[in-house]
Design goal:
Largest sheet: 5 strands, mixed
Shape: globular
Number of helices: 8
Strand content: 15-25%
């Protein structure tokens, strides 16, 4: 895994390491990223759930070891920002449910191994656009279904994943004027919810699903 790391030109506080899923997505980001300030580490599918697996299994996972090495983090040790290779860790995934699940797994991992990193506001989510709209010689990007205008004019492209995006779209929408690098804001309520939904106990997840989903609206 470590051999797939593409470091930023300038490491340190102002640099961000991006975690992406798979080589296809990594290839798209590599071509469009700001190489001065953004490093890149692809992972294979969904990483191990640090909240439902034994810690020895988590620390033995090759992807986990690669992330810790790339960031300069030590699991369970004292948190020292001055020893970080990157000032921030950015989740970079497809704009769909699978991408959101991967983001939760990465969040659970960092929260479990080094909660101070999250509390320090260093964990972020680099959002990928869901839609590209070209009209009258102009290009705009929209990141959710709700953002896309109801009567949108022009040619609409729906991005199925990062791997399908053109380098110029990656550069403009994720590293240029449309960039959305959102800090994951820590809260006690958020940590509790994360542990309930991602932890070993099954019942809290069942309760959450049945209390928050209106099954009458789901078509089979």
């Amino acid at each position: 895994m470590a051999d797939k790391l593409k470091d930023a030109e300038f490491l340190g506080e102002e640099a961000t390491l991006l975690i992406v899923e798979g080589d296809s997505a990594a290839g798209a980001i590599i071509q469009g990223r700001d190489v001065d300030h953004y490093g890149l580490l692809p992972i294979r599918g969904k990483c191990i759930n640090a909240l439902s697996n034994p810690m020895e299994d988590v620390l033995a996972n090759e992807e986990v070891k690669a992330i810790l090495m790339a960031m300069g983090l030590s699991a369970g040790g004292s948190f020292n920002p001055k020893k970080l290779r990157y000032g921030k860790l950015g989740i970079c995934v497809d704009a769909d449910d699978d991408g959101a699940h991967i983001a939760l797994l990465v969040t659970a991992l960092i929260y479990s191994l080094c909660p101070e990193f999250v509390l320090d506001g260093r964990l972020c989510w680099l959002k990928a656009p869901l839609y590209k709209v070209e009209h009258a010689g102009k290009t705009k990007y929209y990141f959710t279904d709700a953002e896309l205008p109801a009567n949108c004019k022009g040619e609409i492209t729906r991005h199925k994943g990062l791997g399908e995006m053109q380098p110029e779209d990656v550069e403009r929408s994720m590293f240029g004027e449309y960039q959305r690098l959102e800090q994951i804001t820590p809260s006690q309520e958020g940590f509790i919810t994360l542990e309930r939904l991602m932890g070993k106990e099954v019942q809290p997840r069942k309760d959450f699903v049945f209390n928050n989903i209106d099954f009458s609206t789901i078509e089979v």
